[in-house]
Amino acid sequence: MIKFNINDSAVEAEPGWTVLETARHYGIEIPTLCYHEAVLPSGACRLCMVELRDGDWSKLVASCIYPVAEGINVYTETQRIGNVRHWIFEMLLAECPASKEIQNLAQKYGVTSTRFTVENPNEDCMVCGLCARACEEIVGLSAISIIDRGVHKKIGAPFSRPTEVCVACGCCVTICPTGAMRTLIESVRETPEVTLTPLAL
């Protein structure tokens, strides 16, 4: 077992665990959106940031992809972390203003508005790629992908053409953290008349 501290409390973790997995094992809350236990973590949303400290030295890391190590000191609730989370929530509220899931999580952490410009009031996809990872890793297909790059990237079918690969399993709809795949799935499938049945993950 690997021994370290979270919020000045001693914890133990199995080799290979991440900071987030350990925190959840001990019931310590760290907000996430793009993380799901069923797929490999990607650190896309950065909401799970925590602070590592050693004397006067500190740094912020994404807890979902940061491996535990002997003797590290992890803090999940500091002023620095609070500022980062607030900024990330504001960015998400501007990028995905139509997502009730993001609105509710942001409100839980005291963020109800954004200083950033809302370009598309109907947008609810944060392009975290969780749906694409679930399609590949859980279902064993690649019916969904992140297309384009930078500010133009979006979720769609590979090569931006509706695909026959989708089997209408509903995994992507179930796992989507913002609710966006409820409507995006229609742009991916070549046969949208099939009724989706969300899987229990």
Write up this protein:
The protein has 201 residues and is α+β, with helices and mostly antiparallel strands. It starts with a strand and ends in a 13-residue tail after the last helix. The chain has 3 domains: 2-77, Ubiquitin-like (UB roll); 78-124, no CATH class; 130-188, Alpha-Beta Plaits. The chain has a 5-stranded mixed sheet, with helices on both faces. The protein has a two-stranded antiparallel sheet with strand order 6-7. The chain has helices at 19-25, 79-95, 100-108, 130-139, 171-175, 181-188, and strands at 2-6, 9-13, 49-54, 57-62, 73-75, 145-147, 154-156. Strand 6 (145-147) and strand 7 form a beta hairpin. The model is unreliable at 192-196 (pLDDT under 50). The radius of gyration is 18 Å and the shape is globular. It is 28% helix and 15% strand. The chain is built from 6 helices and 7 strands, in the order ββαβββαααββαα.
Explain briefly what this protein structure is.
It is built from six helices and seven strands, in the order ββαβββαααββαα. With 201 residues, it is of the alpha+beta class.
